[in-house]
Specification:
Elements (H helix, E strand, L loop, with lengths): L7 H12 L5 H16 L3 H6 L7 H15 L4 H5 L1 E4 L2 E4 L9 H13 L6 E5 L5 H9 L4 E6 L2 H13 L5 E4 L13 E6 L4 E2 L8 H6 L6 E2 L6 H13 E10 L5 H10 L2 E8 L5 E8 L2
Parallel strand pairs: 3-4, 3-6, 4-5, 6-9, 7-8
Antiparallel strand pairs: 1-2, 9-11, 10-11
Helix pairs in contact: 1-2, 1-4, 6-7
């Protein structure tokens, strides 16, 4: 079929056929649209109305190469090098976790609960910077500090902040080390730390296991809350009295996270569900 690729319509049909059975039908349609926009640098309306336009051999070669990468499980975001997160353009690449829709829900929760907030926000384990950037855009009175142990992640977050025209303070460091947050105080701490237990790898898709950074996803079964422990330990000095901590969590560790928050003196601990009705977020208030 690849030899018959002459028009945009041909490419759409080719990609749909190649990816069918590998991805769900709705995802095939979405991926096809993303790839067409990426290759032709045109919007959806043009691509639908210009379906009979003939295309160059170089673009046909690109389509065939990209189709092969997708069939091997490479995430479309790593092929295009970007994604959209809470209305922000976020560049991603090797060594940087692809932002998830449920993390957008965490951001939405923080924004809705903190309209007009004017203090510091600390995002721990920022990765691509998606959380920090979305909060900086939507809570413009705040000052956002973002930290990560990975130099690649910090560089990517800096690039994404420039693209979205926001200022965030970036720190490279490990929250498990004393004074890693640079002595900053914050009224809000947010984190989406690694929380998938190694034993849960067998439930993960190949495109995640083969391409995304394992250090941003997985934790040992014998210490699955190590990052939550470290963050709450640091929060004793970083988080201001009556400050709030927001976490994305593993639905299998809900009770453990709740108990942990309370053990560090947090009150009003709440577990909230994501759009798929899974326990996905935890929040608590630091007692003054």
């Amino acid at each position: 079929m690849a030899g018959n690729l002459r028009t945009i319509k041909d490419i759409r049909n080719y990609l749909s056929g190649e990816l069918s059975g590998i991805y769900p039908e709705g995802e095939v349609k979405s991926i096809t649209g993303i790839i067409l926009e990426y290759i032709f640098k045109k919007d959806k309306l043009y691509l639908l109305s210009g379906g009979d336009e003939e295309i160059s051999p170089d673009r046909i070669k690109s389509v065939i190469r990209i189709s092969g990468e997708l069939k091997r499980g490479k995430p479309v975001q790593y092929i295009t090098g970007e994604t959209v997160f809470y209305g922000c353009r976020i560049m991603v690449g090797e060594g940087v976790l692809i932002p998830r829709p449920e993390t957008e829900e965490l951001v939405d929760l923080i924004i809705k609960e903190n309209r007009g907030y004017r203090g510091n926000i600390l995002d721990i384990g920022t990765g691509s910077g998606c959380i920090a950037i979305a909060l900086a855009v939507n809570l413009p009175g705040s000052a956002v500090i973002a930290m990560d142990i990975s130099g690649k992640a910090v560089d990517k977050a800096a690039e994404n902040a420039r693209i979205n025209n926001v200022k965030i303070r970036l720190l490279k460091g490990d929250i498990r080390e004393k004074a890693a947050a640079g002595g900053e105080k914050a009224g809000i701490i947010v984190s989406n730390p690694p929380y998938v237990r190694n034993s849960e790898k067998k439930e993960m898709h190949k495109n995640i296991l083969d391409f995304e950074p394992p250090e941003a996803l997985f934790v040992p079964d014998n210490d699955p809350l190590l990052f939550y422990h470290a963050i709450l330990e640091a929060a004793e000095n970083i988080l201001l009295p009556s400050g709030i901590v927001y976490f994305e969590i593993n639905e299998a560790m809900v009770e453990h996270v709740s108990v942990l928050l309370e053990s560090y003196g947090f009150s009003g601990v709440k577990i909230l569900k994501d759009i798929n009705n899974k326990d996905r977020f935890a929040k608590g208030n630091k007692n003054g």
